[in-house]
Amino acid sequence: MYDDRFTMLKSELNGLPVDAIDAMLCIAELIKTASLLIGTDGHFETGYNLLTIAVDYAELVTEIRDRTTGQGTAQE
Q1: 23 CB-near residues (< 8 Å, 6+ apart)
Q2: What pLDDT, on the 0 to 100 scale, is given for residue 2?
Q3: Alpha-carbon distance 63 to 20, whole Å?
Q4: What are phi and psi of 15, to 5 degrees?
Q5: Helices 44-69 + 3-12 axis angle, to 10
Q6: End-to-end CA distance of the chain
Q7: Quick one: three-class SS letters along 7-63?
Q8: What is the pTM of this model?
Q9: pLDDT of 2-28, one tens digit each?
């Protein structure tokens, strides 16, 4: 992940837990809520936005873990 994307995600998702286990619980709740909203009349866009947040959050937590453990990932 490029540093500018990493910095942006850290800023946008500031305050959310970055511990992998805690993050997985939050991401699961985001996905459940998004699924409910997507299937509800008039709330598709909100549900889709929640899914986008869940993806960004998962990407951030993975990148933090990789950088902390020194595993690193190939830049896209």
Answers
A1: 16, 17, 57, 58, 61
A2: 84
A3: 11
A4: 100, -20
A5: 120
A6: 6
A7: HHHHHHCCCCCCCHHHHHHHHHHHHHHHHHHHCCCCCHHHHHHHHHHHHHHHHHHHH
A8: 0.81
A9: 889 999 999 999 999 999 999 999 999
**28 against 68, higher pLDDT:** 28
- Which residues have a Cβ under 8 Å from the Cβ of 56 and sit 6 or more positions away? 9, 12, 13
- 23 token code pair: 């993050």
Structure tokens at 11: 């800023």
Locate 1 and state its tokens: 């992940």
pLDDT (tens digit per residue) in 17-63:
999 999 999 999 999 999 999 999 999 999 999 999 999 999 999 99
Whose tokens are 């910095």? That residue is: 7
